[in-house]
Amino acid sequence: MSADTDADLPADSELPGVLPDALRTELIAFRRDLHMHPELGNQEFRTTAAIKARLEKAGLKPRVLAVGTGLVCDIGTEEGGRPVAGGRPQPPRPMLALRADIDGLPIPDTKTVPYRSTVPDRAHACGHDVHTTVVLGAGLVLAELDRAGLLPHPVRLIFQPAEEVLPGGAADAIDSGVLDGVGRILAVHCDPKVDVGRIGIRPGPITSACDRLEVALDGPGGHTARPHLTTDLVLAAAKVATDVPALVARRVDARSGLAVTWGRIESGHACNVIPQHAELSGTVRCLDLAAWRSAPDVVHAAIDEVATLHRAKSQVNYVRGVPPVVNEPGTTELLRDAMAVRRGPYAIEDTEQSLGGEDFSWYLERVPGSLARLGVRPLGDTTRRDLHCGDFDVDEGAITVGVELFTAAALLDGHRP
Predict the structure, then answer these.
(1) Which of 197, 317, 360, 399 is the Cys-Cys partner for 214 at CB 3.0 to 4.6 Å?
(2) Quick check: helix, strand or coil at residue 52?
(3) For domain 209-322, which architecture applies?
(4) What are 11-32's pLDDT values in tens digits?
(5) Radius of gyration of the chain (CA)
């Protein structure tokens, strides 16, 4: 199916899985509770317990991941993972997985709202509380459909820890077996540039690769009156900060979008002392998978060249992060069809590839899948907001949209070959 064959799609009134009002209210409260109690990667014990308790209340059997936080929960399977139809075991069919990330960020929440973070210097400033609530809500709705015999094939819920910790908690989740038996996987990510009620989709690359870069520079130090007798380390650090990004950009195809951006630079303690040590840290982002694979060598060479020119010794710690998220076209069409059924084709917009990183990419190295951008901007709001900012917030109507998108996708996917 595709958006060009809307006549073949069932009408929304014919497709179950609309979010009940009582559950909508509960999910908003659940999201606000998570928002008030953000936890960093691999420390999401309270969050894990809250998700587990709600799934168990619904009669499901979630399993905590081997790392101690995060969960996986199957719907529509018996023990052993065999689907049931008409009371008789049927041959296993690959599951559809719905993935959420559950960790917060180490930044203060600067909003003035009743559900503001209660944890100092911690905030859900990337929307992971919404992602978690959407997958939880979809799971609860799909569990009811399964009990009514309306779930065409099994679904797996994945609540993944540590998305914000490079190289991402997805790798640990995969090692725990969360993709065993999975045929395709879906996710959403909050987008403050997209209106609530809409989603942005894109086949192919939708995010960039993201690596972490740490540079240490050393020199003998000295007096600021005699920089010619030593290594002017502050100048060397400044040149690394300004010249390396420019050199890197000129040594790869410009279409690859390879970019070095610094987030920290530190050196010295006194105005008249040339320091012996300086540090820089930042990120390396790339739109192209092939260029990403060559990025460590290109970046190392540029740093060594600039540091040597200014008589500084350099040490580089290049931490591999995540490759780009590359959406599989067929799964992206599934999301398009699901949204068209629920909200109509005008609720779907094409979206650009961003320079943000997302460890959902590791799942797509194993199984086909797609990530959609979930609109969270209130209608009529012209304020420019961004992710990873202390004032980030969402229009909570996005929770309903996300839940119904996933439930429709699960029902439509069940009728595909």
Answers:
(1) 317
(2) helix
(3) 2-Layer Sandwich (3.30)
(4) 555 688 789 999 999 999 999 9
(5) 24
